[in-house]
Amino acid sequence: MAKTRLTAAERGEEVLDAAVQAFGEAGFAGTKTDEIARLAGVSQPYVIRLFGTKQQLFLATEQRVCDRIEDAFRRAAEKKADLASLGEAYRELMAERELLVVLLHGFAASREPAVGDAVRERFGGIYKLVRELTGASAEEAREFLATGMLLTVMAAMGVAGPDSIDCPWASEILDSF
């Protein structure tokens, strides 16, 4: 059976999938582009040809994660435009722990000017989207995002989401949602 040749766009998607996995595991500073290339099954020079630099690849990865969050929120709001529906959509994303960890790595790398500018813009966009989709007040949106960040941190620690470690304090927090 002949192997199907992928387009550059399709390969780029595979590289982004690999980048989510690699950056989720080791963060921006701890990830090498050759590791991402290995995971994607391409050469390191090909990764650079597609994305330019490791920083540009990291930014594209952050964009992908934020796109996924925004898409999940939009789909949830199509069914019911309230914070509870958006919250349920976010909890479903917790099954993809690496997405949430990449988000945290983006926050941590935000002292890097290009990363910080992009991450702040996207987080602000998520905030605005939550308000637009639900009609939430600034205070309600702040509480919603704060809860999301708590769940993100708990997922990163492995105490929330599928296959989570049993931890009484985490169970107590999660039971309140």
From TrEMBL:
<dbReference type="InterPro" id="IPR050109">
    <property type="entry name" value="HTH-type_TetR-like_transc_reg"/>
</dbReference>
<feature type="DNA-binding region" description="H-T-H motif">
    <location>
        <begin position="32"/>
        <end position="51"/>
    </location>
</feature>
<dbReference type="Pfam" id="PF00440">
    <property type="entry name" value="TetR_N"/>
</dbReference>
<feature type="domain" description="HTH tetR-type">
    <location>
        <begin position="9"/>
        <end position="69"/>
    </location>
</feature>
<keyword id="KW-0804">Transcription</keyword>
<dbReference type="InterPro" id="IPR001647">
    <property type="entry name" value="HTH_TetR"/>
</dbReference>
<dbReference type="InterPro" id="IPR009057">
    <property type="entry name" value="Homeodomain-like_sf"/>
</dbReference>
<protein>
    <submittedName>
        <fullName>TetR family transcriptional regulator</fullName>
    </submittedName>
</protein>
<keyword id="KW-0238">DNA-binding</keyword>
<keyword id="KW-0805">Transcription regulation</keyword>
